[in-house]
Amino acid sequence: MNRTWALYKKEVRSYFVSPLFYVVAAVFLSLCGFFFYSDLNFFLQFGFGMDIIGNFFQLLFADMSRAMLITVPLLTMRLFAEERKLGTIELLFTYPLREREVYAGKFCAAATVFLVMLGATLLYPIHLYTVQPYAFTVVAAGYCGLLLLGLMFIGVGLFVSSLTDSQVVAGVGSVGLLFLLWSASWNEASGSDRVMGVVKAFSTFEHFSNFSKGLIDSTDVLYFVFVVVFFTNLTLRSLESRRWRGRR
Q1: How far is CA 42 from the centre of its chain?
Q2: Positive or negative, the Cα torsion across 18, 19, 20, 21?
Q3: pTM score, two decimals?
Q4: Cβ–Cβ contacts within 10 Å for residue 33, how many?
Q5: How many Cα atoms are found within 13 Å in the side-chain-facing hemisphere of 125?
Q6: Which of 85, 87, 143, 179 has the most CB atoms at less than 10 Å from its CB?
Q7: Which residues contact 118 (CB under 8 A, 6 or more apart)?
Q8: What is the Rg, in whole angstroms, of the alpha carbon atoms belonging to the chain?
């Protein structure tokens, strides 16, 4: 535990002394701020007769998830790829650290930084509440979904980063894989109902949409937990294979 904690602190410190974090955070918060303003303005002008608050947050959370799709992989692309490029991953494995301890330290560090970014967006619903009070149920469900979605993005990003020594390849590869999982069910006309039923079961968009509507379903929660665990195991196998090749 102490070794994981030491690695976690090192990784968190490296985030906050790197300009990458501030650029990614600025882009993410700028996009979320723009979506908050434009979505709210749209419903104020054209949302007569609608549940403005409910529909507004549904659209806002969907837009925020897309902002996460292009920014969260930038937080994970360096975690293993940079170590491989600099050769420090070999040094890391000479320490008394197991693969799961290395992974836990890096995953928790990325999750902490993501929580800082996501927490800053709470200013938007808080500001709206000061203008027009509303029930926090939809907001709580939406942020629960964003949190699970972000952890999933981090898990996938770490796996891709463990496969390459190029941060660019890791970032682009993560975005591509996440977008594939996100949009898997969009082309419903391309398959039968049975096929689309299977595709929807693996579609990130389908499982996140309930959260954006203010609904928390155990099936959706289990989906995100399953994906994180699945890619965690893939990453550990990738790290173990590299250690084995290094010993040879």
Answers
A1: 27
A2: positive
A3: 0.90
A4: 14
A5: 23
A6: 143
A7: 143, 146, 147, 150
A8: 20
